[in-house]
Amino acid sequence: MVSTQISSATIGFPRIGPNREMKKALESFWSGKSTADDLRTVAEQTERVAWLSQKDAGLDLVALDSTYYDQILDFITYLGLIPKRFQHLEPGFAQYFAMARGVHGAHALDMQKFFDTNYHYMVPELEASPAVEADWSGLLAKVERGQAVLGSDVAVPILIGPITLVSLARYPEGTDASALVGALLPAYVEVLGRLKALGVPEVQMHEPVLALGTANELQADFESSYSQLAGVGVPLNLVVYYDDVEEDVYSWLVRLPVQAISLDFCAVPGAAHGCATAATIARLGFPEDKRLGAGIVDGRSIWRDDGTAVDLLAALRARLGPNQAIVVQSSAPLLHLPYDVRAEKNLPGELTARLAFALQKLEEIVAVAKSGSGTAPPALETFGAAFPSDEGRSGIDASKYHRSEDYATRRPKQPQFRPFPTTSIGSFPQTEQIRRARLQYKRGIISTEQYKEQIGVEIGYAIGLQDALDIDVPVHGEPERSDMVEYFGLKLDGYSFTEHGWVQSYGSRYVRPPIVSGNVTRAGPMTVHEYRLAQAVTARPVKGMLTGPVTMLNWSFPRKDVARSVQAFQIALALRQEMEDLEGAGCRIVQVDEPALREGLPLKERRWARYLDWAVDAFKLSVAGAKPETQVVTHLCYSSFEDILPAIDAMDADVLTIENSRSDNEMVLALASAGYARDIGPGVYDVHSPVVPSVEFLVDKLRSFSSTGILGGDARRIWVNPDCGLKTRRWAEVLPSLRNMVQAAAILRAEVEGAEGKQQGAKAAAQPQAQAHGPRHACTGCH
Q1: I need a surface site. Which of 355, 412, 472, 476 has the fewest CB within 10 A?
Q2: Does the keyword Amino-acid biosynthesis apply (predicted)?
């Protein structure tokens, strides 16, 4: 038995099911192939499996983590914070999924990255004085299910803390955020009272906002709010993750009236005791009357623990004393990891032995807790995982980070287009035929030539469609790519791939991050064949499509024995070779996507410069070899980039395309205010919604760009494109959406060209008078 001082717990677990049960159930329900009751049944079976897996692993406390789509959307619903445009819809799935995906006449809630992860949450929209109409029945029913499965002494509810919820929200400028927190508190007090009545052992209050560098500004809100919440009398566990807590925040955090505080010990390496959080506790201590939630098993890394967790626990016990209550847990919710490494049958054995997915992390948590209790833990296979400094430029000439000509000089040499040029971001629908062909090829049912032939047919269809729609710069549609990172990783040495390593990105969208398992190099051309196929069937310039080095790294599971910057520069050099080959094939427009640039940004602003320095240099290293005549495009999406605009400008891309449709031109306004001077393509419609945008809607959206003042309204430098790639949509949605987009651009283009024609006519009317002096001026000019 584990001693009363050392126990084990979870703070979150994958919600997708061992075999992606939730994805299949959601998509079946959305397509009308199953009922709401069917969806509820699968969801409850999926959560039951997850909860029992944690209990069976030997965890003392199990957090009740499950959702139909997104945990923040759940709390928007629980609190009744439904935006007015959705209030006419029937409460329940109709309203819930409308907020997530949009419906005709009501665009979806904005979607942003959750702190520094690739998980996307739905952004709450709060009024200055929100009318909170809480209905906690869904949460309470989940808790009762958890108690029935696990026992009332094991099942622990999770609440997204009120201060974090407000910090993630959008609300009118000038609104007092503290007042918003205050408006939510009565509802939180209510639910805590009802949870107390259910006999829960504690309630986890997730407040990751405390990991931000600005958390000290929230002291008054936390002290006031948690004083009220503590008054209910149910034990509270304040849970913080994704980074360490600043010392000045820690000093008041540990005085809050909560029974437990859970901290992340794995986010930031430190000089003392191996991590920054342990160093803070070593200096400042920890209150004896509170339980310490020690997040010492890395919840965001797929590598097995190297013994660090056991050493950390021993150091904590030595520093805090044998009577200090400590609960061993993961550093962050395990939803960022694949489910079970035992499902992987084709990875090299020596690699598999080094891996620990979510289920294996449970084993590590329990084993570490037993080591702290004096009970000999089960043997754990370990993997050496030092934390090196972020360096990696050695051997790379400084000139390789810069284009041969500056933007103002090279841009006129690049392809020129009519006003409001149209394009797409990259991918087109991954149809059933494409998936079937890929599976048949993978299983050896069809040959390489047969597979390439089918991919060629898909590319020809995509190009023909875009020609017919009159899209200025077509894309080949990426039918050969199952994923924008996986595709390139498969063609690079140094990457390894799982078959079942799925991780939720948002809703039913899961990704399968590859593993950086060695030094990354390019084996040969990766995209040239498909580019040539596409360009051969159109006279329009086809965009080459690459995934940038920072996104390749941030959407992979990186090595822990080599600095991230080293890995990024290795990838960048491989992409630089690919750029050269694309140019050799005649490509003059290349898009290098970096949607995950912001994702790797540390939560503490004082660490930004170091990260952005090497991240921007990695991007520049990948593209700077391009000729001046080659137009380099990059794409950013689903994050707030307003506070790193200098870094975006420093990337030196010729065209920037951005996700924009859900955010009311926020990024466009920020770029305009900053004087951004390069071509821009703000997304005109939401690719994550099944709603087909009307021509009128798109015309209004395009007109709104001019009102921001971006580029002085220069229509030849404002691109018209969707928010993001279209692989998750159906052709039945993509075709009319693109057709309407092109028609909207044509309407605005006609207005611009009409105005230009009037100007030219005015000049022509004045021309005869000017020509009276023409020969004399011309002669003078010759001399």
Answers
A1: 412
A2: yes
Q: Please tell me the distance from the alpha carbon of residue 151 to that of residue 154, in angstroms, as a whole number.
A: 6
Q: Is 427 annotated as a binding residue?
A: yes
Instruction: Read off the pLDDT band of 272 (50, 70, 90).
Output: very low
Q: How far apart, in whole angstroms, are the C-alpha atoms of residue 616 and residue 558? A: 18
Stronger pLDDT, 689 or 580, i.e. the higher one? 580
> Active site includes 104?
no
Look at residue 241 and tell me whether its pLDDT is greater than 80. Answer: yes
Decide if 698 contacts 721 (C-beta within 8 A).
Answer: no
The kind and range of the H/E element at 456 are helix 448-469
Phi, psi torsion values for 151, nearest 5 degrees? 105, 145
Q: Is 336 annotated as a binding residue?
A: no
- pLDDT tens, position by position, 461-473: 999 999 999 999 9
Question: Which residues does 290 contact at the CB level (< 8 Å), separation at least 6?
Answer: 254, 258, 259, 260, 261, 325
Catalytic residue among 688, 773, 777, 783: 688
Quote the pTM value: 0.87
Q: Give the residue with greater pLDDT, 254 vs 397.
A: 254
pLDDT for 66-88, tens place per residue?
999 999 999 999 999 999 999 99
Please check if 660 is assigned to a binding site.
no
DSSP, collapsed to helix, strand or coil, labels residue 171 as coil
Angle between helices 731-771 and 695-707 (to 10 degrees): 50
Please, what CATH class does the domain formed by 6-13+51-85+110-286+299-348+356-373 belong to?
Answer: alpha beta
User: Binding residue per annotation — 275?
Assistant: no
